[in-house]
Amino acid sequence: MPRNFNLQLPKDTIGIAKAALAVLLLMNLVALYFVIYTPGGSPTELDEQAASLRTQVFQRIATLKQTRVTAQKIERGRVEGDQFMGGYFMTARTASSSIVDELSKAAKEAKITAKEHSISTEEIEGSANLRMMSITGSYEGTYADLIEFVNRLDRSPRLLIIESLNATPQQGKGTLNISVKLETFVREDAGTL
Q1: φ/ψ (deg, to 5) at 148
Q2: Where are the domains of the chain?
Q3: Which of 20, 37, 86, 169 has its CA 20 to 30 A from that of 160?
Q4: 177 and 165 in contact (C-beta within 8 Å)?
Q5: Closest by alpha carbon to 102, among 129, 137, 131?
Q6: What is the pLDDT of residue 6?
Q7: How buried is residue 141: exposed, middle or buried, by Cβ count under 10 Å (0-12/13-18/19+)?
């Protein structure tokens, strides 16, 4: 006996199947798009981007190393600058008496006679803690003694700049009237500003 297997699908089921096939086809097209045009680029593009980023990392590492070297040099310069300032520049509180004592000692050792000293200070434009001190001194002695005096000033542990030096002979005495103008720098202490 033959059986009749007549399957008839309702019309709604065919419409649903067509819709499901359309959705599957659309999803396959979207998947194909992502396979062809991968997000972020193709593998070669991603390799190129990775190589570029590696190059940037190496450049930045080199820049960082150079910056560290520069920072170390700046710090060393700051320390050496402070040592220079401490060694060659006196504080404003003690500078006047120290300079006059040093000049008098150099004159005595050079065998010239110190007469008088005048001291003035001026601010240095652009510096918050340095001043320029000008010292004018009068002396009397021979030419050889003057050379010895200048030599002793040159070997001074302080930074002394001879701005001007005038020597005029005295008649009949064989000695010179000497006028020296010196300049030096002094530090202002935080408490004296």
Answers
A1: -65, -40
A2: 43-88, 89-192
A3: 169
A4: no
A5: 137
A6: 63
A7: buried
> Which pTM value belongs to this model?
0.57
Query: For residues 193 and 189, what is the distance between their CA atoms, to the nearest angstrom?
Result: 7
Residue 128 DSSP symbol: S
Look up residue 129 and give its amino acid. Answer: N
Question: What are 164-181's pLDDT values in tens digits?
Answer: 999 988 887 788 899 999
User: With respect to CATH, is domain 89-192 assigned 3.30.70.60?
Assistant: yes
- For 174, phi then psi, to 5°, come to 75, 15
Q: Are 137 and 179 in contact (CB under 8 A)?
A: yes
The DSSP bridge partners found for residue 181 are 136, 164
Got the DSSP string for 17-42?
A: HHHHHHHHHHHHHHHHHHHHS-TT--
- What amino acid occupies position 115? K
Give me the residues paired with residue 182 across strands: 135, 162
The DSSP bridge pattern shows strands 90-91 and 113-123 to be unpaired
Q: Quote the CA–CA distance of 133 and 160 in Å, as a whole number.
A: 10
DSSP code of residue 67 = H
Per this entry, what is the length of the chain? 193
